[in-house]
RNA sequence: GGGCCCGUGGCUCAGGCGGUAGAGCGCACGGCUGAUAACCGUGAGGUCCUGGGUUCGAAUCCCAGCGGGCCCA
C-alpha cells in the first residue's frame, strides 16, 4: 500500500481525538507495556495530585514532564511502572464538603449530620473529582495506569500506612506531648508547617508598660503585635549580652534596650539613668499588667529571664513571653520551669481562666485588652503594623499558637540519618537537593502528625483508659485479633467506625482509640509502599521498590520530598526514591502566581482549544528550563504552533510527491539509489539531533531537547533540505537521484517522529500510521512501540561544518544580489568566493554544486584573493597637507592615475614611493597614502564569516535568455494556480510576443515546457481557457493556457 | 533575620567548563509565489542589575549590594 497524501493543513484537534481513540480502542498503552515487561525495570512513583477540583496548568506541566520522560525510557527498552496516584484525605476536601452541606463548625458536623455521613460525603466528593481529573490527564495524552491507581483512602493503602506508624512506635519515634503548635481556630485543628500560607496582615503594634515590683513609676517596656497573648504572659526575655538602660521620660522610668531608645523617644527629652547588661537583669520581678482583669495571674510570679533569640530589629529588646502561645516562648519557658498558661480553647475562645475576657474570640479581644491597658495608664503607644503572618492554607483564617497535646513523629532524632541518606539521592538541578532540601531538613522540627478532624486515616493508636499504656495497631488482622468490643464493618477503617473498636490492655483495662486522624502528608509520604500494599503483600514491592525517579514542583521540598524521606527512614532506614527533578511553577505573563482572585488563571483546556495538546506539551517543555518558574505566554505558544505548521508543511510536501510517484521505501535498498551530499548531510543532522535529544532527556534538560528539535525542523529540514531537493522532486521517472531524495527525506521524517514521540505523542502517531504502517503492515502498531534509535555512525561532523559554511556563503550571495538589486531568479555568470582560510575554500569546493544551484550562478570560483579588485591610492591629507601644501592636488592626481597595486608593492619593497612633481621629487611613506578598494563595474560583494563573495552581475544575452525564461515560467505557474490545476496536470501554452522576445527564449522552450508541464508550447494565437497579459521588463506578452 | 532561585535587546528566553553577546516574537525595509490561511532575506535595537575582586581577558568565576520570586523563622 502506498503512502497517503497528507491533509493540507495541520488539524491538531482531529488528530489528537483520533489518536487517543486509537490508543483506547486498541489498548496501545497496555500492549506497549506488555511488550517490554521482560526488559530491565525502571520504577517511577507518581506524586498524587489532590482531588479537590480540576487540574490547572501546573498540574498539567507536572504530568507532561513525567509522561515525556517515561515514554522516552520506555522506548529505550525499559519496563516502566507508572501507576497514577490520588491524594484524597484532609482538610481541603472537608472544607469543600462543609461548604456544600452548609456546615460551619465541628459541632455542626458531629451533631447535625454525623461523622459517618460527613466522611461518606467526603469520599464521594473525592471520587467525583478523581474522575474529572483522570479525564483531564488522559486528554493531555498522559500514559499512566489510570484504571488501577493508588488512592489514599483505599483500605489496603491505609493499612500499609498503619504499619509505618507501628514501625515508628517500635523505634520509639512516636510521642504524645504538650507543645505549642500552629493552630487553626476555625478548623479547630493543628496545622503542619506545610499547611500554612504566609501573607501580609495588618495588626496592632503596641508598647506596654509592665510595672516593676517594689518601685514607683518604673516599668519594663514591652512590644507586641498580638495583644491577645498578654493574658498568658509569664515572663519577659532579654538578651544577656545587650546593653539595657533605665530611661526617664516625662516623669516615668522605662527599662529597655539602649539601642532602641531613639527609635521610641527621639522627639522627647529623655535621660538615661542607668545602663546594665541584660544578664544583670535576670530574675527582676514585675507585675502582670492585667492581673486585676485576670485573677488567675495573681498566682504566678513574673520575672525577667534570658534568651539568645532576642533581637534589636524592632520593639524594645524586652520580649513578652507567653509559653502557651509561642514555640520559642514554650522552649524557654520549659528551660526556666515556667507554667504553661494557656487560657484559650480550641476554637480560639478565652476560657474561664482568662477572667474578664472569658468567651471572647482572641482576635476580637485585642481591642478590649488595649483599652484596659490604656485606662490603667499601662499603654505607652499604639500603632498598626503590616507584616507577614501565617494563615490556614485552606480557610485563610489567621493561625494562632496554642499549647495542646498532640502526637509527634520525632524527626529530630532521625534528622542526621536523613541528611546522610540525602547523599544517595541525585537531584536535578543539583542545588534543589544540595542546598534547598538540605536546608529544610536541617531546620526540621518534630512533625505534628495528629489532626482533630474526620476525613483522614485514623491514627491507629489505642490508649488504655486505666494505665494509659498505648498500643499501635499495624494491620487490620492485628486489629481484628485484638478487638474485644465492637466489630469492624467489613474492612472499613475510617472514622467513626474504627472509633467504636476497643482493645484489651495487659493491665486488664479498656483501650480506646485516640480520636485524631493523621496529617495528610503522612498519607502521601507512605505512597512508595502503600501503593504496593506492603507489607501485607510483597511481590510487587520486591519488584519495584525503591523508585528510580520522581518529579514534583519546588513546593514539595517541604511537602512530598520531605514526607516521603521521613516515612521512608521510619519504615526502612532508606530513601524511597533515587533521582528527583524539582520543577518550577507556572506563573502568569507578569510572573505572578496564577490565582482565582487575581483572575489570571490560564486553564490547560484554553490552550488545548486554541492550539492543541501537542503544542501545549511542546511549549511547556520548551519555554524555559524545567526547574525555573514558567511565565506562561500566549505569544510563545503561537510560536510553537508555527513550528508545527512548518513540520506539517514538510510532511505535506513529502507525501504529496511520494504518493504521486507511488514511492514505496521498502522496495529499495541504499545501493540502488543515488545520494547526494545534502542527503548525507541531513541524515547526519537528524542523528546529531537525536544524540542531543537523548542526552538532554536523559539529563532531564527537556528544554535542550525541544530547542534542538525546533531548530532542526525550521532551519535544517524546512528552510534548507527541502529547498535543496525541490528540483529533484520534479524529475519524472524512476530516477535514482529523485528516489535518493525521497528515500532520505522519508527516513529523516521517520527518525524525527521517533525522537518527538515522547514529547508530542499524537502528531507523531498520526504521521507514523501513514509513513510507516502505510507501507509496511508488519511494523509495530504504534510509534511508541518503536525502539529509540540514534545512528551515531551516520554523523559526519565535517560535512555538517561544511554545510554551515556553505549556507553562510549562499546567504552572502543573496545579500550581494540584493544590494545590486539583481533578482535571484536571474542567473549570474560567475561568483567568486574569497577567503584566506583554506578550510573554508575546501568546504566550498566539496559542496560546489549546491552553491551553483542555490546561488543561481553559471560558474563558481574559489580564491584567496579577488583579482579584479581595483586598488586606488589616495593621499592622506592629515600628513601630506602640512608637508606639501599647494602640491597636494598634483600628488593626488598622480596617485589617482597610477595602479594602486603597484604603489602598494613599491611601498612594501622599499618603504617609500617616489612621486615626481615638476622638478620636485616627493617621497611618500606608508602613512601618507590611504588605499581604497574599488569593485569593478557589475560586481556585487558581500561578506560572510571568514571571507567575501563577489557576484558578477553583468547581463549577457545568454543570461537574459534564461532570466526571461524563468520570468515566463513564473507567470505561467501563477496562471496555473489561478486555474486551480492539480500539481501534475498538463497544459498547452500559447505565447504572443515580439520577435525579439521570441528569439530570446527560443532555446529554452523545452526547459519552460518541462517546468510548467506543457505538452505543447507554441508562439501562436489560440482560443484557450485562460489568457492573461503580462509585462516583462519592456515587453508586453500575452500568455494563453489551455487545459488538457 | 535565614536558605534557595532568578535578573542578558521592547517582549519571551538560550548561552553560563572565562576568549568578538545569540534565537524567536515585535518593529522597519526588501524579496519570493505549486509546501502558499505559507515562506525567505536584510536592518535597527544590548552599561549581559550595580559596584568591587581574580585574570592578559569576566555575561560567565569570587565578594558585596540592589531588585523580583519561592520557602522558612
Give the secondary structure arrangement, pairings included.
Elements: H1 12-26, H2 28-35, E1 41-43, H3 57-75, E2 79-81, E3 83-86, H4 91-101, H5 106-139, E4 145-151, H6 155-170, E5 174-184, E6 189-190, E7 196-211, E8 218-224, E9 235-238, E10 243-249, E11 252-257, H7 261-265, E12 270-277, E13 303-306, E14 318-321, H8 327-336, H9 362-375, E15 379-392, E16 400-409, H10 411-422, E17 426-428, H11 430-442, E18 447-448, E19 450-451, E20 461-464, E21 470-472, H12 476-482, E22 483-485, E23 502-504, E24 510-513, E25 517-518, H13 520-525, H14 527-530, H15 539-544, E26 547-553, H16 560-572, E27 577-583, E28 586-587, H17 604-610, H18 613-620, E29 630-631, H19 634-660, H20 677-699, H21 702-729, H22 736-756, H23 761-771, H24 797-819, E30 830-834, H25 838-846, H26 848-854, E31 860-863, E32 870-875, H27 877-884, H28 888-897, H29 900-910, E33 912-917, E34 920-925, E35 929-934, E36 939-944, E37 947-952, H30 957-978, E38 987-992, H31 995-1001, H32 1005-1012, E39 1014-1018, E40 1026-1032, E41 1035-1043
Parallel strand pairs: 1-2, 3-4, 8-11, 9-13, 17-27, 26-27, 28-29, 30-31, 38-39
Antiparallel strand pairs: 5-6, 5-16, 7-8, 7-15, 9-14, 10-11, 10-12, 16-18, 19-25, 20-21, 20-24, 22-23, 23-24, 30-37, 32-35, 33-34, 36-37, 38-41, 40-41
Helix pairs in contact: 1-23, 4-5, 10-11, 10-16, 17-18, 18-19, 19-21, 20-21, 20-22, 20-24, 21-22, 22-23, 24-25, 30-31, 30-32
The chain binds one RNA strand of 73 nucleotides through helix 11, helix 19, helix 21, helix 24 and helix 30.
